[in-house]
Design brief:
256 residues; alpha/beta; Rossmann fold; six-stranded mixed sheet; globular; binds adenosine-5'-triphosphate; binds magnesium ion
């Protein structure tokens, strides 16, 4: 079943074409990666899909429905969640509060209101608390639930971001460089973790990642960007042996 499809989405910033004619297709249950050198347009593609930017050209369909002009919070409600390249947590709030807020964002679109009401949720909304605790259990953060989120090591903060995304009950999850800044052990754990949440939550995952170990290990298909253009698309084996990809990307990537 087709979950997400883009038709020639293009994003221009003044004279710069950050993404040109990107045609993406995600089928239910797939893990698909988007790779490419720095500045290739990967995050811009995510920003179009999640409604942060309106494409200069092209269409985006979620389960057959045109979402091209929808606002980000409406897209979240429909079932597309994301994490950010630069971790975006409420630094001064505890781990559990970060998840509680995300839970409520699913219900309300007003962030400020969600923030103000956190103490109230804790007392009144037992089911929300229970769900948030379950999520923390799944992502392995239950033992640090009362820690300030900014005090967590990097790998844990990334997991917390994923927990927050999961709290909105997505069907499609977009991960923007989930392994960035992680050590080899954390990276390996994350790879297993991504597979596990795909299975446990019935997700379709679209992931930007530089760590080739992660990308080649779990992706069914890979799209490759270079200067906004899709220079290749295929399974890990095809991509690893694609001359154009090797030249544009793999050959120059320190992380590869
Ligand atoms: N809001 C914006 N206004 C102008 N230019 C932008 C904007 N956002 C991105 N760009 C430009 O678009 C290009 C693609 O940026 P983007 O962040 O999508 O790349 P990326 O592939 O995610 O790179 P990285 O691997 O470094 O995260 C870059 O040249 C960037 O400077
Ligand atoms: Mg990026």
């Amino acid at each position: 079943m087709e979950m997400l499809r883009t038709e020639n989405i293009t994003m221009q910033f003044g004279g710069l074409t950050a993404v040109k004619d990107f045609n993406l297709k995600l089928n239910k249950g797939e893990i698909v990666a988007l790779i490419g050198p720095n500045g290739a347009g990967k995050t811009t593609a995510f920003n179009m899909i999640t409604g942060v930017y309106k494409p200069t050209k092209g269409k985006i369909y979620y389960k057959g429905r045109d979402i091209t002009q929808m606002a980000p919070h409406s897209i979240t409600k429909l079932g597309i969640a994301r994490t950010f390249q630069n971790i975006r947590l409420f630094k001064n709030l505890s781990v559990i509060d970060n998840v509680l807020i995300a839970n409520h964002l699913h219900v309300k679109s007003n962030l400020f209101e969600a923030l103000l009401r956190v103490p109230k949720y804790k007392n009144e909304d037992r089911s929300m608390m229970k769900k948030s605790m379950e999520l923390l259990e799944i992502v392995g953060l239950i033992d640090v639930k009362d820690e300030k989120s900014s005090s967590l090591p990097y790998g844990m903060q990334r997991r917390l971001e994923i927990a927050r995304a999961l709290a909105t009950k997505p069907e499609v999850l977009l991960l923007d460089e989930p392994a960035a800044g992680m050590n080899p052990k954390e990276t390996e754990d994350l790879t297993k973790f991504i597979k596990k949440i795909r299975d446990d939550f019935d997700l379709t995952i679209f992931m930007i990642e530089h760590h080739m170990q992660v990308v080649m290990g779990i992706s069914e298909r890979i799209y490759v960007f270079d200067y906004g253009i899709t220079i290749a698309h295929g399974n890990p084996n095809e991509i690893q042996n694609n001359q154009r990809v090797i030249e544009a990307y793999l050959g120059v990537d320190d992380n590869a």
